[in-house]
Design goal:
Number of helices: 7
CATH architecture: 3-Layer(aba) Sandwich
Distance between the termini: 48 Å
Strand order of the largest sheet: 1-2-3-4-5-7-6
Structural class: alpha+beta
Largest sheet: 7 strands, mixed
CATH superfamily: Gcn5-related N-acetyltransferase (GNAT)
Number of domains: 1
Length: 205
Amino acid sequence: MNISIITTQEEHYKYSQEICDTIELSALLRGTGIAKRTPEYIQKKMESKDAVIALDNGKFAGFCYIESWEHGKYVAHSGLIVHPDYRNLGLAKQIKSKVFDYSLEKYPDAKIFGITTGLAVMKINSDLGYKPVPFSELTTDPTFWAGCKTCTNFEILQSKENKMCLCTGMLYDPKEKPKDPPEHPFNIRVLNRLKSIKQALFLKK
């Protein structure tokens, strides 16, 4: 296995549909909400070199892209996905680390944030130095939140006026500290409990 993780080029446009299909299938299997992407949008990110792709001798293995908000004040990593054939190999962490370093290089003054329901992504973010934060510390750009419209939990987000949802907000501020292991290590039990509380509150009928 010879996996390379590189910034996207024109030759990678052909993977756009497969990337979208893999993201959607993964969400369905996990039963989690996720914002849908189109092949056209994925290609647009590739064209602007705001994406990285993992390939194994030409076979699609993983992907992630960057979005910027408020004129580069904030950036987010979206669409992080690993093909089923390459899971449980630590590839997601490698892709995330690659796009994280690339973001610091391309957007050196930006705060890096994300929202996710996935504990694995939370663990990776925590290892990179992100910290859990309320949504009020994230971008207020309505375009970002509009991207949640295709998520199954969008009604919850709307009902809470974009201040809370099943997702957990996480933020890395390059001005606060360097990319070091966090002072307080990731605690999966705490975040599992938080996730359970949110589900009990928001999904009760």
